[in-house]
Amino acid sequence: MWLLIVGVVCGAVAGFFIRDRTRSPRMISAPVVADPVFTPDSEAGVRLLLDALPMGVVVLLPDGQERFRNTVAMSIAGARHADVLIEVAAERLLTVALRGLESREQIQLAGPPQRVLEVRAIPLADGGAIAIIDDVTDRWRIDQVRTDFVANVSHELKTPIGAISVLAETIEGETDDELVLRLTSRMVIETQRMSRTIDDLLELSRIELGGEMLSVDIDMADVAAEAVERVAPMAMRSGVPLNIDSKKGTSIVSGDFFQLVSAVKNLVENAVKYSDQTHQVDVRVLTTDATVLVEVEDRGIGIPADSIDRIFERFYRVDRARNRATGGTGLGLSIVRHVATNHGGEVNVRSREGEGSTFILQIPRVLRPT
């Protein structure tokens, strides 16, 4: 029986390690076996192996009595609501497995943090059954991100492509030069929108991977100045004044200049887009003992409380109508978040609807000897 259990569990473990290799590389420690006489075909040896697994294992005899439960499965004692849900699911699926049928069930636990566990029950050749309880939260989250990403990017690219198609059909055979000029101008706008989306996707992908990042000492005052300079033409067209307050030489960080400029530029662009004419946008570079803070404050429309937790998601936009007018892709704040993460920092926001928002990018400070 124990060899049969080892065969079943090995299949599950192989799947676990294959999935694990697709994540970021990390060291996997081998289990420490205290017993000097260790044979994998002995009951004691199998128990040691099963206790070393990162997943729960429960084995039932053909009469339904519990034969074995490893350490992870024993931690599920029904003391909490989540434990009860998992235990009940395992019992239900094991009952099915005792009748010779394999089954599985995915359980989503609200948290925090949100977790997803998969319970799988497999019949054994001797009439017993085995249940494997595996935490698949990372895989589930990646699948959700992939699904959302495909749906969102399809929508974002389909909209301008559809508009270009309609405009091209309208131009075909048109003899009014003034109308043709207006339609071609609109086509240029739609192609630029599509190009911005693709550029932002490429930039986000590069930053997420964390590759090609050259870490050198950088003055965040220079970063802020460069970002403001890049956004200045857009702010001028919108009639939104930009004000920068920084002091060179005191706000030194270690990182990638172009990534940091990209992050601050996105924050300033967003502030301008969501501001009305004459509403000033302030960019401040501040320092604490351990961090450098870049604050970007606007006096625009603000962010509803129910959107605060979602604004850093890809393609999420608070005001879709306004973004259609300004040409936003909904990727800017995702870029900011990943740049902050790549530099060991974070980005936060304070906002009140109708009064404006302040985004704070925090990066660890490099202290120079005096």
Q: Main traits of this protein?
A:
single chain; 370 residues; alpha+beta; Beta-Lactamase; Heat Shock Protein 90; 3 domains; 5-stranded antiparallel beta sheet; 12 strands; extended
Question: Can you tell me about this structure?
Answer:
The protein has 370 residues and is α+β, with helices and mostly antiparallel strands. It has 3 domains: 2-135, Beta-Lactamase; 142-209, Signal transduction histidine kinase, dimerisation/phosphotransfer (DHp) domain (Helix Hairpins, Orthogonal Bundle); 213-370, Histidine kinase-like ATPase, C-terminal domain (Heat Shock Protein 90), CATH 3.30.565. Helix content is 47%, strand content 20%. The strands form 3 sheets. The protein has a 5-stranded antiparallel sheet with strand order 2-1-5-4-3, sandwiched between helices. β1 and β2 form a beta hairpin. α6 (177-209) packs parallel to α10 (332-342). The longest helix has 35 residues, at 137-171. The chain is extended and about 80 Å long. The N and C termini lie far apart (71 Å).
Task: Kindly summarize this structure in a few lines.
The protein is an alpha+beta fold and 370 residues long. The protein has 10 helices and 12 strands.
Draw up the topology in text:
Elements: H1 2-21, H2 43-51, E1 56-60, E2 66-69, H3 71-74, H4 81-98, E3 103-109, E4 115-123, E5 129-135, H5 137-171, H6 177-209, E6 216-219, H7 220-238, E7 242-245, E8 252-255, H8 257-273, E9 281-287, E10 291-297, H9 320-326, H10 332-342, E11 346-352, E12 356-364
Parallel strand pairs: 7-9
Antiparallel strand pairs: 1-2, 1-5, 3-4, 4-5, 6-8, 9-10, 10-12, 11-12
